[in-house]
Design brief:
The protein is of the alpha+beta class. Helices cover 27% and strands 26% of the residues. The chain contains eight helices and 19 strands. The strands form five sheets. Strands 1, 10, 11, 12, 13, 14, 15, 16 and 17 form a nine-stranded mixed beta sheet that branches. Strands 2-3-8-9 form a four-stranded antiparallel beta sheet, with helices on one face. Helix 2 packs antiparallel against helix 3.
């Protein structure tokens, strides 16, 4: 079988030499990341497997050469002829087995010796003489020499933790437009605060493995360890083909939806990123392969659970699947007899969440006061409503009494033309109405 489940390790990220700009607008640091193999968990969850188990994977170097011959118009004809000869010699040397490679899990992940890779490296068509699916160390050589700079939010809180420079640059440089190449968003652990008042706002992360920024949209409210949070997921339009979303032409999404073409970003290796188990991808992508697991949104989708007052991520999964394209090639031996397919190589599930201790501190420091504020707000609203109601009742009562008094006055007033004074004489007072006691 081919494919590696790489979710049973620990990713360690170190940020060194952190300091701030003079006006406190930016924070600058150098970061380095590496992976630690969790052998006990792997053996527990994956039938006692180890890093020394032998696995079979598609012959990625060969498929890369075939892809270069077929699609790279920048390769000189003389070099293209060399590559064609290389494929023929390799086919003769390996026979029917030349479509696969085998090696230990350790070597396939961190560095597998391969004769085609050595030739490609000598021709400056590969960055390394070894096949490496996952560098154990920062994948970017600039990580420890060029600083990463992020906004502190000091002048604009909506920009807090957003990248200003990532490893010294603000562009990924491998996509088809300036907008697509621009590095936007955060690393995915924090966003602007007070999202609670703007659910429709899109949040953005920059993913180094995808070489691009990705938008996420609000999908639903949830809770994690008793903390209310907003869930954000990658929208369908972010990975649609150019027919459904013309903007994605810059990401070379010419044919299939639900897939990201990394060929230009991965040294011309025909690699494609999808969600795990081809979740939400065009059904044609998996036509010629058989998956042992059915795609499930709960188990295979990427999401972030964000506390909406602070913008802090309290739980999240980044789940992706790396696939290699095997093309039908009439000019290349056995590939003339194969069906085109996207073969899964690795599924990755990077999970991060707030610890129980921090969750308790967040709830006591933030949520309890907010709840008290809400209770106080509703009590004030109720008290205000009571005052308004009392005022209305009082006004109604005053008007009612005034109206009743006016009616009584009308009943007791008569046109008196004459009145009797105390002396007993009758006097003429026809111009002044007199009140009868």
């Amino acid at each position: 079988s081919s494919g590696i489940n790489a979710e049973y390790g620990q990713k360690v990220q170190i940020k060194k030499q952190a300091n701030f700009s003079g006006d406190l607008r930016y924070a600058m640091y150098y970061d380095y990341e590496y992976y630690v193999f969790n052998e006990s968990l792997t053996q527990q969850l994956n039938n006692k497997s180890t890093l020394h188990d032998i696995i079979y994977i598609p012959n990625i170097p060969l498929l890369t050469v075939v892809s270069q011959i077929a699609h790279n118009s920048l390769i000189p004809e003389a070099l293209k002829s060399q590559l064609e000869e290389l494929v023929e010699k390799f086919e003769e040397m390996r026979g029917v087995d030349y479509l696969t490679l085998n090696g230990s899990v350790h070597d396939v992940l961190w560095g597998l010796d391969d004769p085609i890779m050595k030739v490609l490296y000598s021709l400056k068509l590969a960055p390394s003489p070894q096949l490496t699916l996952q560098m154990n160390g920062s994948t970017d050589p600039d990580a420890m020499t060029m600083p990463t700079v992020v906004h502190t939010g000091h002048f604009d809180i909506s920009k807090v933790d957003e990248y200003h420079l990532f490893h010294g640059r603000n562009s990924s440089g491998c996509w088809g437009s300036d907008a697509a190449n621009t590095i936007n968003g955060t690393e995915g652990s924090m966003f602007e605060p007070l999202l609670v008042y703007n659910k429709s706002k899109t949040i953005t992360i920059y993913n180094e493995q995808l070489f691009r920024s990705v938008d996420l949209v609000f999908t639903n409210e949830s809770t994690y360890q008793g903390i209310p949070c907003f869930e954000y997921r990658i929208p369908d339009w972010a990975l649609q083909n150019v027919t459904n979303n013309p903007i994605n032409e810059a990401y070379y999404a010419w044919t299939y939806s639900g897939m990201l073409n990394l060929t230009q970003c991965a040294s011309n290796v025909p690699l494609y990123i999808t969600k795990s188990m081809f979740l939400d991808a065009d059904a044609r992508i998996a036509e010629n392969i058989t998956l042992a697991v059915t795609a499930n949104k709960t188990l295979h989708d990427t999401y972030l659970c964000v506390e909406p007052y602070t913008g802090v991520v309290v739980d999240g999964h980044k789940r992706v699947q790396i696939n290699v394209q095997m093309e039908h090639s009439p000019a290349t031996g056995i590939l003339n007899e194969t069906q085109p397919a996207f073969i899964p190589l690795i599924t990755v599930d990077e999970h991060g969440s707030i610890t129980p201790d921090l969750a308790d501190k967040l709830k006591s420091a933030l949520l309890v006061p907010i709840q008290a504020m809400h209770v106080g707000f509703y009590l004030l609203c109720a008290f205000g409503a009571l005052l308004v109601l009392s005022s209305v009742i009082l006004q109604v009562k005053i008007v009612s009494n005034k109206y009743r008094q006016q009616e009584e006055d009308k009943e007791v007033l008569v046109p008196a033309e004459q009145t009797e004074n105390k002396s007993g004489y009758i006097s003429d007072n026809s111009q002044v109405p007199s009140k009868i006691a």
